[in-house]
Input
Amino acid sequence: MPFSPDQIEELNLLTLFNLTSAQEGIKVHRHSAAPESVTAAERLFKKGLITQVDGGYLTPLGSETAEHTQKLLTILSSD
Output
């Protein structure tokens, strides 16, 4: 089963988090972010992966998921 466009947007947001600092979050601004990013953040919040509906910080589950996401991106980006 391939990734859906919504899942791709969620994965893209998870790659934006800095995994070396739990004190660094992201903010998805409704007025300037792409609508797909805004709704992806809302879905990640509902799934319990981020702390705020518009970004915030990673939850423990979100941190683990972001780590896997970033590792997958590294693997797929290698030659």
Q: What stands out?
A: The chain has one domain: 5-18+25-77. Helices lie at 5-14, 35-46, 60-77. Strands lie at 26-27, 50-52, 55-58. Residues 5-18+25-77 form one domain.
